[in-house]
Amino acid sequence: MSPPQDQHIAHAARLSEAIAALPDLARRIAFILEAVHGRIAFATSLGLEDQVVLSAIDRVDLQNRIEPFVLDTGRHFPETLDLLARSEARFSRRIRVYAPEARAVEDLIQRDGVAGFRLSVEARKACCHVRKVEPLKRALQGAAAWITGLRRGQSAGRGDVAFAEWDAEFGLLKFNPIADWSLAQVEAYLRDHEVPVNALHAQGFPSIGCQPCTRAIRPGEDIRAGRWWWESEDGKECGLHKSPARNASQNQPAEIRR
Prior knowledge:
Distance between the termini: 35 Å
Helix content: 25-40%
Shape: globular
Number of strands: 6
CATH superfamily: HUPs
Structural class: alpha/beta
Order of helices and strands: HHEHEHEHHEEEH
CATH architecture: 3-Layer(aba) Sandwich
């Protein structure tokens, strides 16, 4: 019989405090490896933050206990797929690819059309659910914990991201080891460690998702302005990251830079 949810939440809070006291990312990754008994998954979108975490994992996780994976929605930019190949070559580590179920995609397009995600927020979220959320569920099946590259500075909705939290939806621990990093820290790490990044970042794409749903931003725009730009600025999210269990009663999703 598994412990009640409040015990999971309290345990995650203690882990979060411990990680907060660690001075660098390598020690935080090492702590996660020691704290978790079982499979650890790392969800990467191949964005700047995730490339930082992947580099740190490569340096610390010498036994390859942490399993990196990417969600291939079928609509990625060619540059994103190129970065996937370059990252595998650089780190000599296979990044598992999870794709949506073919029948689910076919049914979605049959119902809403090939560009149905632009018809309404509900239709767009339905597309995200088929192409991202359902594959994520398969990727996390059987895992004891997962790691992300979420940062508090990415958006107002992520301002309270903890270093560790209990993910009630998936029933496992969720670690955000660079939650307190600034964008300047991310960029400095990538530069200092010569980590490969998506070529689109140099072309005005700070946040990169599916090709039909991402555009370059204009000077002065928010870094997420290029994501689902035809929607209002309130509540943009795709459903991969929900509020932690401590806020479950409010059921307010946090934004995700994916």
